[in-house]
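Sequence in, structure out. Go.
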Amino acid sequence: MRFPVLAFLRECLGWPLQLAHTTARLFGQNRLQNHAAAAAFYFLLSATPLLLLLSYALQLLGHLAENSVPATILMAALYDQMRLDTLTELGFIPRQAQLTVGGIGLLTLVLSSRGLVNAVQGAFSVIFPYPKKRNLVLSWVLPLIILPLLFLLMGLAVLAQMTLSFLAQHNFIGSGNAQMLQVLNSLFGIAMVWSLLFAAYWRLPRQHPSAPVAALFALAATLSLAVLFSLFGTFYKLENLRSLYGAPGSVVFVLTGAFLAFLLFYLWAQAQYAYGKADITALEKLFLGHTSGVGRFEAFVFGDPHRLLDKYGEVHPAGHTLIEEGSDSRTSYFLHTGRAHVYKHTDEGQRQIGTLKAGQLFGEMAYLLNEKRTASIIAETEITVMALPPYVLEELMTHSAPLSRRIIDTLCQRLQQMILVSST
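Output:
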């Protein structure tokens, strides 16, 4: 029963497995873990001036708390939820921030913002290769404003969540109302994160994908990040790192969390790109022979052509003229099963100049040379072919250098054959 079960699993999970395999291969090939490390470094670099800005806010809040009950509650919530006393004792938050130091902190925040956005844009240039250059103004202006704006929005959401938690713990507004407000605030935070990811997945690639696809992968990334931070807070305790590393334990905690978050961010971006390339990869494996030079798992993942046949397949009876010499069609074909003959008109009438067998790609000459069909293809037996529109052939040749070389070699042989037929 083992083989029927495997065949059933491959039929049911064929496309998800191909997507996952393509994503994992491209993720490793593009070395996205290095890009995630660079982005995490700039994120950590931006945390220092943010703590400095937090010290300014605490000083201002302390003055307001002298005469304002809401400010007093907010300040108590911050100290209770964020453990600011501990951070101040460890020296992460200065007790009295100087204005000149604040200016340096703001400059560092702007520079780290630019470094972070450039790192993300560089990773997306690798994930979504496209020759078009970015707008120069956006390349310079966006990095200077995006990170401060991002942290401002995230800070407001976190601040609201912490305040509600503090009020609920001390029974200021009633536990029922607090829980409802916390749920609404959590949903708002998730929606905000999804919006940011959607904007990145949709607009950062130089060749923008469709909005529904970007929205779907942004949602997957948002849910993955929620699971990550839930597990991260459960198994990766800040107190343990502090006891092990001392004050630098907080740095290790932030750096590790940022690195894992950016890994997930790039992983789903790579999956979004692979979503449009899963068919191309499967077609490449089929055309080149998926069982040659690959492992068992890869052969299992790409070994079933039924999904491709359902999408691109055509069945024609014996005697059917698939391609008519002189026509303007640009579709290419892959002969999956059966046999077909190649005919060309000569001064002596129609003449057979070749035979096509299963496993051959044909019909690409008209598209590559931008000319009319140079020969007719007539089925000798019932044939099953995969009809490939021009854009699919173009993506195949761009995606696979071995397949491009094979197509060029076949094209040269056919041109040589045409010359010999014409000369005789």
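Check: Strands lie at 313-316, 321-323, 332-337, 340-346, 349-356, 361-362, 376-379, 383-388. The longest strand covers residues 349-356.
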